[in-house]
Structures are given as structure tokens and as C-alpha cells.
Design goal:
Elements (H helix, E strand, L loop, with lengths): L21 H19 L4 H8 L6 H10 L5 H11 L2 H18 L5 H29 L2 H35 L5 H19 L2 H8 L9 H5 L5 H32 L4 H29 L1 H18 L6 H29 L5 H30 L1 H20 L6 H14 L8
Length: 431
Amino acid sequence: MGEPEQTSAKKDNTVSMRTFPRVYYELVLVGFVIIMGMGLSSSFLPLLAEELDPSGLLVGLVVSAWFLSRIFIELPGGIISDRIGRRKLLMLGISLSVLGPALCSQASNIYILIIGRAIWGLGTSFYFMNNTALIIDLFEPSIRGRALGIFQGVEFVGSFVGAPIGAFMADFFLANNMGYTPVFYFTLALMAMSLLIALISKSLRTTESGKGRVSSVTMQQVLSGLGDWGIAAICIMSLSRMLLMQGIFQTVFQLYLKNDLLYSELYIGFIISVRTVGHILAVVTAGILSDKFGRKPILMTGYIIGAASLFAYPFIASLEILLLVGFFAGFGEGFEFTTLIVLLSDIAPPRIRGGAIGLYRTFMSVGGVLGPMLFMAIYSSLGASYAFFTAVAINIINIVLLATIKTRSSENLDDAVVSRHEASGAERPQR
């Protein structure tokens, strides 16, 4: 596929961030606003779902719906992105992210909340898939981790800001018998702001039009990437990461704090925010360190820290220690968050990069769907301790998978994939 115009950021891995292209900073701003809007409801969403469905049967589905709508669209979306460019799908994603909270704000029953979450999740999928691909397009592997890590770190500052603000707002509106609806109105305003920023961005249009993308990549060529064990293992680790993020930290953890440890929504918001601080510091640090020391050592460190933190949760109840362990849990997760996708970009052929990211995110979405239902079932039947220990076991499996991956140049992999298709009579895509 056609490569983006060369920028000064691609020439020297010691280059200052001041020479990064303008579109990079505009995408950072849009991402910050979107993540902040998502963070406003993160501290009370399972509580709202439980309020709308006291039986608890559909609580897990409210969280899962965020990913359920994405399972069958992310891989085709990645391929379409390779064909027509990143901007069109990015704009579609932000537009759907406006519609999602608008529906959630009118959720008089749990089914409307599920539909709103599904549409909102689909929108963020298109946005994050295409902004990640665009960042990877713009930077060479030698500084790609740094660029993506800083980008994601700034985005998650929005989550850090959004979670306590959302918790405070929820606490205030509930005290005044207004419910959670006004919080979604604030979210809607933030999403509309991000759409406006993207619409008026001249540099985003210029970057996209300058690519000359003429890729004719097919679904078969993307799926053939699973024949490489490294790509397959990374996709499995992507799935398991979301099992834990959505099943534990977006569902069970909040219910555990509320029902088992009797913390209020306000304190839950603070605990989540401190975990987010660890996550933010880690995604920036991981990007820089993985450029210097390699992807696998940083990922291994993240999995070990994450497993230790998850193992500790059932044995602590004091707020101070919960905050400390939460910080380390977020730090371990942040090491995984950035480094795993950069490792994929190192391995996947450049000409099917969008499709490879779509495949990665499809596995991620499957984990997002299954995680809340799996861990809610464990939590409901066996208790929180078994849910945390299951998460520890999954992290140990990830460590084993990571040890089996052998990295190699994505360009060499590209040539190998092309050779297999030429041998089968397939036409070589234009670059």
C-alpha cells in the first residue's frame, strides 16, 4: 500500500516532539476529549445497569455490548481503511460516539442502555483503530513506541480526569434526585466537541490525501497473517487482556468495592482514577523503553506486575493499600496496552497494517464481550477471590505465550506473504 509522506519525525529517532506533524497533536486532542467523555460514566455504569436490572442477569451485557457490536466489523473496517484511507472511518467513528451517549442518556430500561453502549462502542472502535493505524503510518519503528506511548498516555489523562469528575457529578445528581442522566449530557457535549475538532482539521485532510493509497489487499491475505505464530499469539494476548480489563476492572472490581467493601461511588471513582494514573505513566514509559530495550521485556514486566496486583486484591480492604495496589495494577496494564500493539506493528506486513490492526481489535472485542459475562458468572457463584485468581492464571498464560514469540522484520514478513500468494497465482498488490 502507499506509504505516507515522509516527515522529519521519520528520519531521526532522537528528534524532538516539536517536529512531529501537526496532525499528531490534533489526533491527541480529539483522543483526549473522547476518552474523557468515556471516563465520566466509568465509575457508575455497572451500578446504573444493576439499578435498571435488579436481577443482575443483563449487567454483564451492558459492559459487553461495547464490544459485541464490533466483533464482525473491525476486521473488514481495517481492510477498508487500507483501501480508502483512515480519515473517513475515523470521522464515522466519532459521529457514532456522539449518538451512543445520546441514547444512554434516555435509558429508561436496560435494553436502551445496551443499545446505546453498543453504538457508542462501535464508534470508538472505528476511531481508535484508524487513529492507531495513522500514528503507525507516520512514524518509523525506531520511534513508533515513543510516539504511540505518548499519544495514548495523553489520551488516558482524559480518563483520569473523567472518572473522578463523573463520580462527583453522579454523587451530586443522585443526591438531588436527578439520576445519572445529566452525566451523559455532559458526555454528549464532549463527543460533539471532538467531532467539531476533527471536521475542521485541515492537516488531517492533507495527511490523508497525500498518502496515495492504492492497496488491493484482500480478506484472505489478512487472515493468512494468522499463519505466523507471532501474530496469532499477539491476537490471543489481545483477547485475554480485554477479558481482564472488561471482566475485572470494568465490572467485577466496581461491584466488589461497592458490595463487598461497601465503598461509595465517590470513593470508587478515586480508586479507579489512581489506577488510571499508573496506566498513564506506564503507557508513556513503555513506549520509550520498548524502543530502547525491545518489546518483549517490557511486556513481560507488565504481565508480572499485573499478576501480582490481581493476586493481592482479595487480601486487602483499606483504602490506602487499595490505592497503592491499584496504581501498580494500572502500571502493569499500561505496559501491556502500548507495547502489545507496537509489537504487532513490528511483525505485521506494512501493506496490510490496517487489516492486521482490525484482526487484533477483533480478538480484543471478543475478549471485551466474554470478559464481563465470564467474570460476573465467577463472581456471582464463587465470589470475588476466585475471579481475581482466575485473572492471575490468565496473566501467567500470557507470559508463556509471549516467551514463544520470535520477532522479525515486518518487511521480511511482507515479502514472505507476497511470495506465498504469488506461488498460488494471486496478484501482487500495488504498493
